[in-house]
Design goal:
The chain is of the alpha+beta class. Helices cover 38% and strands 19% of the residues. The protein has a domain of 51 residues: YefM-like domain (YefM-like fold, 3-Layer(aba) Sandwich), CATH 3.40.1620. The chain has a three-stranded mixed beta sheet. A hairpin with a 2-residue loop joins strand 2 and strand 3.
Length: 80
């Protein structure tokens, strides 16, 4: 993924969009800091629909014997 300064991205926006649609996203920097990413709408949709880790765990086909037994002992004491 290439990096491009904001002022250059402004003048070449059409080319950046064409590249992103073609599968080559770009990072836009401002004052030497990464600020934004240009990527295709299709890629954004794919990434925005990734389920959270919690939802993945809840959807996992686990049987009761798949998990280790719960430790019911006393909690460890900590000092502050």
């Amino acid at each position: 993924m290439r990096e491009i300064q904001l002022r250059d991205a402004k003048s070449g926006l059409s080319a950046l969009v064409d590249d992103a649609v073609g599968g080559e996203p770009a990072i836009i920097t401002g004052h030497g800091k990464r600020e934004a990413v240009i990527l295709s709408y299709q890629e954004w949709q794919r990434l925005s629909q990734v389920p959270s880790f919690g939802r993945l765990l809840m959807a996992a086909p686990l049987a009761p014997d798949d998990l280790p037994p719960r430790n019911t002992g006393s909690l460890r004491q900590t000092e502050f």
